[in-house]
Write a structure and sequence with these properties.
By secondary structure, the protein is an alpha/beta fold. It has helices at residues 16-32, 53-61, 67-81, 154-162, 186-199, 258-265, 294-308, 353-356, 360-367, 382-392, and strands spanning 2-9, 37-39, 84-93, 96-104, 110-115, 127-128, 135-138, 141-145, 167-171, 203-206, 208-212, 215-218, 222-224, 230-233, 240-245, 280-284, 313-316, 330-333, 340-343, 346-352, 372-376, 395-399, 403-407, 413-418, 425-429, 438-440, 443-444. It is built from ten helices and 27 strands. Strand 11 (208-212) and strand 12 (215-218) form a beta hairpin. The longest helix has 17 residues, at 16-32.
Length: 456
């Protein structure tokens, strides 16, 4: 089928008539491009940044149509142009508001509504979080919806896939997380492609650009296929409608083992990593010569334990080091089956790279309070590696066959060196940022999980 994404500029409550007219123009443009379905940005009407509940109520008193009025318009546009719509707007729920997206079929009938579950920063000042994650049967296939920051929690995408979503629609307003003169956001850079690749489902994301209430949006709306290939993408600064041919796909479930499912669905607060810790020294071992004896390995580790006295150190090796030395400041990771270990209150976990292609293993370690996860092997796509670091706010040390890489909790590669062939390589890293699980003020990627909503 042909799917369109509409990118719009930021707006304000006071110009709602112009906003309504622009949305109608975008629907007409999608129809002209022979689209079957159009996705509009997050809170396309009347605005995303509301300033306050009182500001919204004042605008309503002055004539701003509410959600019912907006949906009447949207259903009429769908019928007139014979196009399905995913329209996002401010929903009125009693005295409170919700950040909503409604799916309307090409006959103008409402199919279903999703309320944003993972609220972002200022969302919380006027929106209540949604309480369910649903997939809807439509003439175009089984469709799931997530709104903006919902994509940052892997459990939400996993639930949509588990419930059979063949296509995921994402109204969004990607907030600038970079410098003012170099706007960026991890979702269009790699996160959406990683979600599509992990769960085998195409994703269509429609964003805003420009400024609302002092917040800069980065545009970059995109459609990607189930392999994570970006089919079309908007610039950061344009009003546009882009269309791509997309084939709904049979999703891949979360592929959890019983112990992972038990942890992820437990209503248990996450363990917080220690925040008051020293800088971690990391020693990356070369491939050890076959003639190295167990006694020599013990001597080496004993020497490293002396080096680590009073300063935490991680010894990372893809060879087994015999005769581990017990030291509260030294952690030896030479086996992905260690579970967790520690060096002076710095908690470290390990997985093989095949397990890092699934979200659950590192998520479980994050919930247990790790600062850093060692990944053995090269089987993880770069987009997925960055996503694993970002979605859990942890450091990742990747021990590949030829290179060693270190990613920070924002998904950035901060070290990328050849694996040593002779002497060990030594790095240092301040792991304290891993103790802060907030991606923005008041938005915690672990504490804000809602396990009761998930189907894994």
């Amino acid at each position: 089928m042909r799917i369109s994404i509409a990118q719009m500029p930021g707006t304000t409550l006071g110009v709602w008539r112009d906003t309504l007219a622009l949305i109608e123009q975008l629907v007409a443009e999608a129809h002209a491009q022979r689209s079957d379905l159009l996705v509009l940005p997050e809170c396309a009407f009347p605005a995303y940044f509301l300033d306050s509940l009182d500001s919204y109520r004042a605008a309503r008193h002055a004539g701003l149509p509410g959600d019912t009025g907006l949906l009447e318009h949207a259903c009429g546009w769908a019928r007139r142009h014979e196009i399905a719509l995913c329209v996002s707007y401010v929903a009125e729920c009693g005295e409170r508001l919700r950040n909503a997206a409604t799916l309307i079929d090409a006959g103008g009938r409402i199919i279903g509504t999703h309320h944003k579950c993972f609220l972002w920063g200022f969302d919380r000042e006027w929106f209540d979080a949604g309480d369910s994650i649903a997939v809807f049967d439509t003439p175009l296939g089984r469709i799931g919806m997530m709104i903006c920051a919902d994509a940052r929690l892997p459990e939400i995408s996993a639930t949509l896939a588990t419930r059979g979503a063949q296509l995921i629609l994402q109204p969004t307003a990607w907030v600038n997380t970079g410098a003012p003169d170099q706007p960026r956001n991890p979702q269009p850079e790699y996160l959406i492609a990683a979600r599509a690749r992990e769960f085998g489902v195409p994703i269509a994301s429609a964003s805003k650009y420009g400024v609302e209430g002092g917040t800069l949006f980065v545009g970059s709306s995109l459609i990607c296929d189930q392999q994570g290939n970006v089919l079309v993408q908007a610039r950061q600064d344009e009003t546009t409608v882009l269309t791509a041919e997309v084939t709904p796909a049979t999703p891949r479930g979360a592929a959890l083992c019983a112990s992972e499912r038990a942890v992820l669905l437990a209503d248990t607060p996450p363990t917080s990593p220690h925040a008051d810790v020293a800088t971690l020294g990391i020693t990356i071992m070369p491939e050890l010569p076959a003639w190295l004896s167990a006694a020599q390995a013990r001597d080496f580790l004993a020497a490293m334990a002396d080096v680590a006295a009073g300063a935490p150190r991680l010894i990372a090796s893809t060879d087994r080091l015999e005769g581990h030395i017990r030291s509260e400041h030294l952690a030896v990771v030479d086996d992905p089956g260690i579970g967790t270990c520690s060096a002076a209150n710095i908690t470290i976990g390990a997985v093989v790279s095949a397990d890092a292609t699934r979200f659950a293993p590192i998520r479980v370690l994050a919930l247990r309070g790790v600062h850093l996860v060692v990944i053995f092997g090269d089987a993880v796509h770069d987009d997925l590696l960055a996503t694993r670091a970002l979605e859990n706010r942890v450091f990742l040390l990747v021990l590949g066959n030829t290179r060693a890489r270190l990613l920070d909790p924002a998904g950035n590669v901060i070290r990328n060196d050849p694996r040593p062939a002779g002497e060990p390589v030594n790095w240092t890293v301040d792991v304290r940022p891993a103790a802060n699980k907030c991606v923005t003020a008041g938005t915690d990627v672990l504490a804000d999980r809602r396990p009761a909503q998930y189907a894994l």
